[in-house]
Amino acid sequence: MPKTYPPSAKTIANAHITAENYGPMYEQSINDPDTFWGEHGKRVDWIKPYTKVKNTSFEPGNVDIKWFEDGTLNVSANCVDRHVETRGDQTAIIWEPDDPNTTESMHITYAELQVHVCKMANILQSLGVSKGDRVVLYLPMIPEAAYAMLACARIGAIHSIVFAGFSADALGARINGSDAKVVITADHAPRGGRSTPLKSNADAALLHCKESVKCLVVKRTGEQTTWTDRDYNYNDMLLEADDYQKPQEMNAEDPLFILYTSGSTGQPKGVVHTTGGYLVYASMTHQYTFDYHDGDVFWCTADVGWVTGHSYIVYGPLANGATTIMFEGVPTYPDAGRFWEVCAKHKVNQFYTAPTAIRALMGAGNEWVEKHDLSDLRLLGSVGEPINPEAWNWYNDVVGKGNCPIVDTFWQTETGGHMLTPLPGATTLKPGAAQQPFFGVKPVVLDPQSGDVVHGNDVEGVLCIGDSWPGQMRTIYGDHERFEKTYFGDYAGYYFSGDGCKRDEDGDYWVTGRVDDVINVSGHRMGTAEVESALVAHVAVAEAAVVGYPHDIKGQGIYAYVTLMNNQEPSDELRKELEKWVRAEIGPIAKPDLIQWAPGLPKTRSGKIMRRILRKIAEDDFGALGDTSTLADPSVVDDLIENRMNGS
Ligand code: WTA
């Protein structure tokens, strides 16, 4: 029996949620959601209070999700204005630059944040952006990214953030996908001592977009960029911009943002989150999961290009009046002590990162941690993929010194906030398990083949959710049918997460990883189909199949089987060329770790690629190949096994 960790008396004494109140609150949240959320919905300020709470249906053909549907509010008023009245001089955002030796960190108070957000809102309005319009953000991790998010929320525009690590092509597709009016970018993005030319990527992307799309350019490094007719200089416009603007009254179900994410088929889809339910859920999970209290300094190391940055750098913490850190850099620059140096410098109380970073820093050695004073840390969090017990133990012993509960939070872009997570004052921790549902979340384990509900404990299956919660995505932008098919098509009446899970003998949940063709590389979610379509777009490639394989640091690596055109010879140059090609098509995060030349791919007689077999070969698990007799040409498998690539 692996060791478990009950909450300490000290943690329980201060905690919002303890073992005593978790049970009754959870029961009410499931059995009487109208009363539970009717009460907890009041944690945000409403312009017109709601009279209806939950109106949701997971019925096939009629999936419809509405929360607080007759209430009105503004997210920027909730994240900024209401705190200016009570804590205007408190730091809202601490900005920590990529290079601490050349650039100072910045503290932005709530009163200052209001001015920045209002000016940005006025600038966007002067560019013709109004309620319901889409604005794409392609920015480094600088305060202007938060200003822009909140400015959009203030005027009712819908933001769609594209991670600065995505290529020009990926950016262009997302600008067109949401028919955006404006793109906000910066000259360059410094990261880990390197610099990405964001503006020139945006220029390349915009070549494929409507001429009317405007580009607002923020100065970050001051490096030279070209200027075109569609460009607007943010720093110049700031000088003229008015420093107040009244927040728009938004309906609870008006969209707040679109965020593209990868699925098992096709191109990334635009996940739509709305205003009221999302904010209630992001702020409540932030407060309870991290046991956040007034005056705490909270650091989530994610990028605002991912959902984690939306919910736990910007919306959750700021709705709660927290001090939140925005970090521009990477864990290992200028050295492997950077995270811990920042924790010490800003006296961080809650620290939230991904297992891939923990594993990389564990490999760098304990001395990097021990150099820094981490005595203000009270809680540690993990997100993005299952955390292996070795990394959990290191995080607990070396970083937390045995004094900080670890919350292993399972959730998704689609869920808006935490779904399964320990609560620090209530849960006896089990390394590697996300353990318990958050309030309002009804996990259900289904048999993957029959779709039957698996009852009892010590069972396995696929993870579904039985009813709606306020932070749930509402639709896929412009394609509600795809939304229904993707999430409600496999198991009627349930939201299907795409993950496998087990419920152990105590009723705790362990998420075991994706059961579809989504892989998780360094905590970044990637559809194998996207990488495949990038590869086959190269002239030398006839066919490609991409799978994940276990990788010591990244969690999963990208393994590509590539069949070349008849006239092409395999070579190391071509391999490099294909890597470069995928970087350009999608971005550096999608670069295959291993490319195997495959004279043929295992296919059924009807021509379907048998990915199960390719996964097993990549995982070096030949014993479990299963039945290969249905293959059109079983001999291709022998060739693939013989020439398997090695790496980790
Ligand atoms: C995986 C990130 C195990 C899971 C917030 C999910 C996890 C996907 C955990 C969503 C965790 C995230 N334990 N697996 N604590 N957290 N995942 O949309 O496979 O980028 O479906 O959201 O990450 O990734 P996404």
Automatic annotation (TrEMBL):
Catalytic activity of the protein: acetate + ATP + CoA = acetyl-CoA + AMP + diphosphate
One Gene Ontology CC term in the entry: cytosol
Residue positions binding CoA: R191, G192, G193, R194, T308, S522, R583
UniProt EC number: 6.2.1.1
Entry's Gene Ontology BP terms: acetyl-CoA biosynthetic process from acetate
InterPro entries the UniProt entry points to: Ac_CoA_lig (IPR011904), ACAS_N (IPR032387), AMP-bd_C (IPR025110), AMP-bd_C_sf (IPR045851), AMP-binding_CS (IPR020845), AMP-dep_synth/lig_dom (IPR000873), ANL_N_sf (IPR042099)
Protein name as annotated: Acetyl-coenzyme A synthetase
Organism: Octadecabacter temperatus
Origin organism lineage: Bacteria, Pseudomonadati, Pseudomonadota, Alphaproteobacteria, Rhodobacterales
